[in-house]
Amino acid sequence: MTLTESNPIPSFEENLKFFQAFPIDLQRIYPRSFCSRNGLFYGMIRTGAGKKLAVIGEKEALLKDPFEGKIFNQASSLKLCDLSRGNTLSLMALFPFTRPVPVLKEAMTIGTGDRLGLATPGHIRSVRKFQVRPVFAQQSVRENGQTGRNFNEVIADAAWSVFQENYREGYGADGDHLKSMEEINQALDSGVSMITLDLSEKLSLEAYLLPGEAIGRRFDEEIERGDAEVFLHLYLDKEFSFRGPRGDLSIRFSEEEVKRNLLLFHRAIDFSEEVYEFLSRRSGRKPLIDFEISIDEIPFPTSPATHLFLMIALRHRGVRIDSLAPRFIGEFQKGIDYRGEIPAFREQFYQHVLIAQHYGNYKLSIHSGSDKFTVFPHIGEITRGKIHLKTAGTSWLEAVRLIAQTNPSLYREMHLQALSAFGEASKHYQVTTDLSSIPQIETLSDPELPDLLNLEGARQLLHITYGFLLRSKLREKIFATLTQYEEDYATLLETHIVKHLDSLRARRRQ
Fold first, then answer.
1. Burial label, 73 (beta-carbon count in 10 A; 0-12, 13-18, 19+)
2. In the chain, which end has fewer C-beta atoms inside a 10 angstrom radius, N or C?
3. Has residue 389 been placed in a domain?
4. Quick check: is 291 in a domain?
5. b or e along 112-145 (b: 16 or more beta carbons within 10 Å of the residue's beta carbon)?
6. Does 322 reside within a domain?
7. Could you give the percent of the chain with pLDDT greater than 70?
8. Which residue, 60, 82, 104, sits at the end of a domain?
9. Mean of the pLDDT values across residues 408-412?
10. Catalytic site positions
11. CB within 8 A of 243, min separation 6: which ones?
């Protein structure tokens, strides 16, 4: 093939013929990835040693190319490059569309956490069908600990997948559920475009349970007099009214409610202000990243009044956010549908939306949002698509489904390992899994195994034990199977995430 800037990208057949001339154990070519820059061709291939970046051109040009790799010489020269940290940075410099960017200001956004580093191609194929913006790299410190990865690796996996699929519309990278300045710095240094600040450890949850007669005494002990006067003035003797197409909302705070809420939130408010100012200083002005605050991992739902109290306090401190994750009424458990009364959820969710529209027009963020199909249509309708949905574990479950379909003996090993790890894993998640509802694995034939992924009990069992499975002796077998059937995995994911977006009433592309 003629390697010139004006030459059309070579066909798959031309690529195949070219690569077969080299001793590289070629296993797969990714045709979408091939493109030209500065007289060189770039594209992704898979060899027996894993995925590689292939750079094709004259040897002299390859030597000047920023990517590090091994050069093979034939009529034209080929350089094969590992997907290393240095080469990832070169990729983002040469192909800026592979670098994460803020996306939350778009109408609808979806976070598709990729715990394996293998799911993003399927995620890309799903979001391409809709008018949405994705956050492909979305992991928490806890998830990284479970999978043995770090933020650099999470972003690198997303960037190379974006290049592989030639996705040029922009994607985000979310340092999810960050709880300390150390974690925030770690995520920012890796290049995230979004910070999700988890305030759960900064809340004084006992204030929610204090009897009324104890509130005033604790308030006087813990809250400085100047802050007390300011906050009482902000809320007392005021009516906060909101009007909307589905009804109005009016909230008034009693003195006890103000004091109880301030006891609950005062450390969280201080920390949010500290983080926001840090982000502003780091970027030189208003933070140039998406900023979300999360209060969803607490033991009680966030009432509209509590939501309003927090937002008034943050705005008073000058803190502006792009999204907020309350804990909604009902149960948003991992990997299964919503549990709760739909009319009550719908009414309260609408009230949350009214407050968000009035106090900064930020998005509501739906955490543990995978598979909540009974409430998705209501969420999409009420928000008119101005929503951020976070998914992650559901993509892992589709990987498990694929293993059950293609490697039943491995699935059986995973299932038994998950059962043995469930007690320890359940300490870290709010689930009500009934293990007795799961059929005994010994009683099932191989063709029946994939159907387990349709049962709530089995889904939660395999969802919350992912870290134990990925740190076990089964890890190599899991990745080998998913690599062997990577196209099938992408197809499963595409279908599954499309179902989520259709249920949310996301607008399809024409």
1. exposed
2. C
3. no
4. no
5. bbbbbbbbbbbbbbbbeebebbbbbbbbbbebbe
6. no
7. 96
8. 82
9. 98
10. 176, 292
11. 354
